[in-house]
Amino acid sequence: MTSQPTSVAVLGTGIMGAAMARSLLRAGLAVSAWNRTPARAEPLAAAGARVTATAAEAVEGADVVLTMVHDGPAVLDALRAAAPGPRPGTVWLQCTTTGLDALPALTGLARERGLVFVDAPVLGTREPAEEGRLTVLAAGPDEAREPLAPVLDALAARVRWLGDRPGDATRLKLVCNSWVLAVNHGAAETLALARGLGVDPQDFLDTIAGGGLDMGYLRMKAEVIRSGDFTPSFAVRTAEKDARLIVEAGRSAGVRMDVAEAGAERFRRAAEQGHGDEDMAASYYAGFDGAPPSPGS
Fold first, then answer.
1. Which has more confidence, 168 or 2?
2. What pLDDT digit, counting tens, does each position of 90-141 carry?
3. Is 5's pLDDT higher than 50?
4. Sign of the Cα pseudo-torsion (97, 99, 105, 107, in order)
5. Sign of the C-alpha dihedral, residues 209, 214, 215, 220?
6. CA-based nearest residue to 295, from 216, 192, 208
7. Domains of the chain in sequence order
8. Where are the alpha helices (DSSP H) in the chain?
9. CA angle 270, 263, 259 (to 5 degrees)
10. What is the pLDDT of residues 14-66, one digit of tens each?
């Protein structure tokens, strides 16, 4: 690992970006932070970040630029807003889940600006991001590994380097997210059916306990639903975006993603019902046409 101090510009301080910035600060790295909605970046000042009014100020002098925004177009907007920086040779750690169609524009911009582009989506939600326990999927040139070492040490419990071809990390992220979203919907829809049929959700959980059908993530999302606390670790609107990226990627590969497509529609309905900024387990509400039964235990 390099012993040189590393400065990181974090562009995007939503649920994930802010949590990642705090992990970087706890590791002793210099962090500058920018968000297009300034109020979302301001709390990071108390943690020691240099909060800037513009993206250009944030990237000035940074060794690494980390982007964690909503989607591919937002990534492009953030980097264009950072003009004339970052300086050539800066490592761009691109952590947003953008899907495959956005990659040519991103890699093209990196070449145009002389940046070292690393395709690096992450697995994990707010809590592991806060605790530096993410899994980072990384694809990029070998020259990026040394300057990124202290950054990835701060962010991740596990880093999977997948070669030097941008896109390989994004492909794996889409595959992983297809499973994550399917389990989330499985939990939400199963608990909705239980409520509709008058079955105690605990009877379902007790019945599968310890067997092959049991799993930690199911129980985690079931607890969110039963508690009624939908504080977002991964928001419905973001999950809908990812579901549609999965469907598009499957279509381009000749694979029908019927479950993901239906899941995207469930997320859309939940957002339409007013749950777009809540945890994605709020797809529970999409299971009801009228007022849903209380999700509480």
1. 168
2. 999 999 999 999 999 999 999 999 999 999 999 999 999 999 999 999 999 9
3. yes
4. positive
5. negative
6. 192
7. 7-165 (3.40.50.720), 170-287 (1.10.1040.10)
8. 15-26, 55-59, 72-81, 103-113, 126-130, 145-155, 168-197, 201-208, 216-227, 236-252, 258-270
9. 165
10. 999 999 999 999 999 999 999 999 999 999 999 999 999 999 999 999 999 99
Number of CB atoms found within 10 A of residue 81's CB: 15
DSSP 271: I
Mean per-residue pLDDT of the chain: 95
Question: d(Cα 201, Cα 186) in Å, to the nearest integer?
Answer: 13
Asked whether the beta carbons of 9 and 64 are under 8 A apart, the reply is yes
d(CA 163, CA 118): 10
DSSP character for 279?
B
Q: Around 174, how many Cα atoms within 13 Å sit in the side-chain half-sphere?
A: 23
pTM assigned to the model: 0.93
Separation between Cα atoms, residue 48 and residue 141, nearest integer Å: 31
Q: Number of C-alpha atoms within 13 angstroms, CB side, residue 195?
A: 20
Residue found under tokens 């959980």 = 205
Distance between CA 48 and CA 31 in Å, rounded?
8
Return the amino acid letter for 115: L
CA-to-CA separations, 90 to 60, 111, 174, 215, 276, in angstroms, rounded: 10, 11, 27, 41, 35
Which single residue is written with the structure tokens 């495959």? 100
Site of tokens 């969110």: 224
Q: What angle do CA 135, 137, 138 make, to 5 degrees?
A: 135
Q: Is 155 in contact with 134 (CB distance < 8 Å)?
A: yes
Cα–Cα distance measured from residue 21 to residue 33, given in angstroms and rounded to the nearest whole number: 8
